[in-house]
Design a protein that fits this description.
Elements lengths: L12 H6 L4 E2 L2 E2 L4 H16 L2 H14 L4 E2 L5 H8 L7 H21 L12 H26 L17 H8 L6 H18 L13 H11 L8 H12 L30 E5 L31 E2 L1 H10 L2 H7 E4 L12 E4 L9 E5 H15 L2 H14 L7 H4 L2 H16 L5 H7 L3 H5 L2 H4 L20 H6 L10
Main location: membrane
Keywords: Cell outer membrane, Membrane, Signal
InterPro entries: SusD-like_N, SusD_RagB_dom, TPR-like_helical_dom_sf
Amino acid sequence: MGSCSLNYDPISDFYSKLSTSDTTATGSKYKTKADMQQQYDNIYVSIRNSQESWYLDMMAYCETHSDNAYSGATDAELAQLESNKQDGTNKNIERDWTSYLGYIVAANRVICNVDSVPDPALTTAERNQWKAEASIWRAWMLFDMTRLWGEVPVVTKETPNITSENVKDMYPLLFPSRSSVQDVYKQIISDLEYGVQYAPKVDSSNKFKLTQSVAKTLLAKVYAEAPVRDYAKVIQYCESVKNDGFSLVPNYSDLFSVNDAKTDVNYRNTSESIFEIVFPVGSGSWVTWMFGLDQCDPNSSYDWAKWITPSRDLIQAYENEGDDIRMNEAIVWGQPSWSIHYPSDHYPFMYKTRSRYNSIIKLRLADILLLEAEAYVNQGNLTAAADLVDQIRTRVKLAKLDASTKGSKDKMVDAVLKERRLELSFEGQRWFDLVRTGKVYEVMNSLNSRDSGRKKMATFTENSLVMPVPQTQIDSNPNLTQNKGY
């Protein structure tokens, strides 16, 4: 007991989340291709099981914490996000921090071990491919983490078995400090470039795959962010994604609709989808229950207050545009027994994930077209930007942008942002769009006066652009610091 120091005690909650060690005194435990196959498969298992942290909570950050939605339920964690009063004790924020680090650990098990598996049945091409897919997943998690929290730990190595001889050397691995945002993006870009080189090409029949196209899509998004902003590269990667054979589906409803018999969705793996988590019949996702009725379950009911309630401000935006097609795919009206945000006889619910069989679509072409339009606007090529926006508008039978808008950079900036809002509502984009385009203060600090149903929001400042680091993690790891303002 006297030889132990609390400062170097490796037994902690934080250590348990970061430990990726699967080694023994005689070397790696992954001796066969089957051993590593299991770790590779576990990445996709973890993605499919990420509905709580990577989808449901992400929707709260991007929709409830923006102007698109109210909290829906009355949980304190959601109410904080709606009113911009979140703090380091928010349990949802804590579970997401630890979940994302856990997903990175799963990726690292493949990245750090696949090349050392002695089984010759595991070919060089397979090793490169599996490592590339794991690298894309690690990069994606780091990207979402840095957009949510700013500086975050960059964990790329495994933690070996801890002994009295090496514990001091292992301390930085067990209790990592937060890396600068620039260093986080450096790692993200490196991982994604490896993914572009070695990940598989897109498979039109299976979009639940971390492909080269996914890596390119993420690189386009990464280079649109201020720390590494390069609009030429945004356009380059957007064009490369388009050249991979994706196309807009003819009807917007094809992305979300269920069949008339209400036994399955109409389409999965559409031509527009770049990455989606698929839930076929016989499987199914529980997350739809959190948003409203399950259209494929005749026994589904409004048995608790649902999350992500569409805001009056978003509904007004659809109505002002005459955008009935997209509004009717994003919002459905019901009659629950409760009336938290609206009268119970006419209550809106998020509708894009409307059954247990609906895919969770994380990346699709419309997002990339509008991101490319954003880049063109900032380069001053308003004609190219307007052409891309008009492609999106034409699909939903809206008029093309008028000449006055096409001739003004300021108007085009607003037009692209508005189009992204209407096209991508309830797909986990809005908050990141506002931050990326520098529109948070303009949009959010005027929301109290525009939206009568919104919980009164605290004023957004530069400290409001990132979430608080969970206090439990700071307590566990003395090298972590809190973000300013929390």
